[in-house]
């Protein structure tokens, strides 16, 4: 059974906090909450969340301050998770500013269950515990272990090239999206399940078309490196 997406709701308004937590739980998420910015920072440093819903005007630290602290703390367990800013009072300029500082989305409160489903789609693919290399899946797809070995040799070269190009691609969302599209196909053939999942998450974010859409890039980069290393020592029998 897939692992539940872990979400943290930080909001000083009890009604908003209650609705968001219960709505997320109704969608199958493991959701918890806190009432202010400092508590959100503490929890997100200690625990690995997949999704943060942060109110813009909390006591102690608002959404932007919380996210800045976490993004600048590589030891924080939620440093690179998907973050969404929430507010009951949001004009277009404020929305664009928040999207420019790595929020994947901005939600106007009150929001609906449909809004939360849309947010969930951004993170869900990358939260299931999947192996770096799924030999059984690859052999079932390709039909022969020797063919899988040959395909994985090609995949490793493709991944090494992608890793070298990744910083440049981060400045060209169209080119990055095209590479991810091809990569997902290669991962499917070779059973590179974890990297394929992270590629899916990043591709979905890129379609948002703003600076915050690159938020999952660090998780993708880690999965890319881990898969390259796994391919170097893999042994299919």
Automatic annotation (TrEMBL):
CDD domains per the UniProt record, alphabetical: REC_hyHK_CKI1_RcsC-like
GO molecular function list: protein kinase activity
GO BP term, example: phosphorelay signal transduction system
Keywords: Kinase, Phosphoprotein, Transferase, Two-component regulatory system
SMART domains for the chain: REC
Chain segments annotated as coiled-coil in the UniProt record: none
Modified positions (4-aspartylphosphate) in chain numbering: 55
Domain Response regulatory: 6-124
PANTHER family: CHEY SUBFAMILY (PTHR44591:SF23), STRESS RESPONSE REGULATOR PROTEIN 1 (PTHR44591)
Name assigned to this protein: Histidine kinase
The organism's taxonomic lineage, starting at the top: Bacteria, Pseudomonadati, Pseudomonadota, Gammaproteobacteria, Lysobacterales
